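Sequence in, structure out. Go.
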Amino acid sequence: MRPSTLGALLLVVSLALAAAGCSDTINVTSPSEPSAPVPTPEPVTETFGGSITQGGTSYQSVFARVGTVTLTMTGIGPDPSTTIGMSIGVLNGVACTAAMENPTARVGSQLIGTATGPTTICVRLFDAGTIAADATLTYEISIKYTK
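Output:
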């Protein structure tokens, strides 16, 4: 290639590259509106009650977000010294899969766990062999969780 042809070719390539970098369009973005603050979830406590007969089971459930879940046995009647079983777990479909269980729960007994994501927490109260054949036992529980 001759020197003058090479110079002309370099000039054409340089102009083409410069033209490719130019544009008639200017992208302007408007400032976005500030987003509303995300509220911090507050812990709530719900109280449930029910009754169990010999060999019986009772279920309760709540929808919890990430955080600590505390199940507390707050009442057993007619004899508060009676023990019953209680468990806490995750409701997956139709089954309550226990994560923690206490088969000898008394008034004041607690099960404390952590919800690692939004889920339906289930509680199972059951006769652990302490309820007489003709007896009905009442219970009261509280569940503290992040709603």
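Check: The beta strands are 43-53, 57-64, 67-77, 84-92, 95-105, 110-115, 119-126, 136-146. The chain is about 15% helix and 50% strand.
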